[in-house]
What we know:
By secondary structure, this protein is α/β, with parallel strands linked by helices. It is built from five helices and six strands, in the order E-H-E-H-E-H-E-H-E-H-E. The radius of gyration is 16 Å and the shape is globular. The N and C termini lie far apart (37 Å).
Amino acid sequence: MKVIVIGRGPIGSAVQKKLVAAGHEVLWVSRRDGIDLTDVDGLRRYFASVGRFDGVACCAGEVMAAPLALSTDEQWARSLRGKAMGQIDVVRAALPHIADGGSFVLVSGVLTDERMHAGVIGTTVNHVVEGFVKGAAAELPRGVRINCVSPTVLTESTAYHAYFPGFPTVDAADVATAYLRALSNPTTGRVLKLHRTDG
Ligand SMILES: NC(=O)c1ccc[n+]([C@@H]2O[C@H](COP(=O)([O-])OP(=O)(O)OC[C@H]3O[C@@H](n4cnc5c(N)ncnc54)[C@H](OP(=O)(O)O)[C@@H]3O)[C@@H](O)[C@H]2O)c1
């Protein structure tokens, strides 16, 4: 498969590595390459320039933490624009160019199901992403599929650990395995959860 991986953080890095190890061709991009989730016209130009590809693995999307009572207009707007609408726009912009039977994988996160202090924006945004995946799966043409990977806090993301006391972590490599599973198999409309609630 020829797969576009968006995002160079720990998840994107692990996904890129996993896909290359599995023998796939990877185009690895992020904002620093001029591929910005918040610029839908730029996304359209980019996907048109690539030609045909078989998959898009989105491993990016800014979302901010803030207590509800103190959260600002900008924090809400940036998070909804970044991680939610940004990923939706990736699918809308790539759809004319992805191959028949191609596959999209988006990213949400544990805050869909679990609560953390100041996590209300993350919870909201992740629900938008997962809702889009379920709705889009029913409408995508030409056998194109879409799924979502929902990791808990990563083992590698130590800066976030203090915000997730008592949450078992997941290794980025295991998250990448879920991306590979979603890209490679005939599943669609699924949320692949990489979180445990049993301690
Ligand atoms: N880390 C975790 O514990 C964790 C857990 C659950 C879910 N997630 C979700 O997984 C996603 C990736 O997280 P991560 O920790 O691997 O990476 P990250 O540290 O959030 O890094 C973000 C990466 O995404 C790129 N990026 C950010 N905004 C972008 C935009 N508007 N357009 C294009 N690229 C953009 C950045 O590109 P540049 O470097 O080029 O700016 C960077 O490579 C996020 O949506 C996050 O909410 C993360």
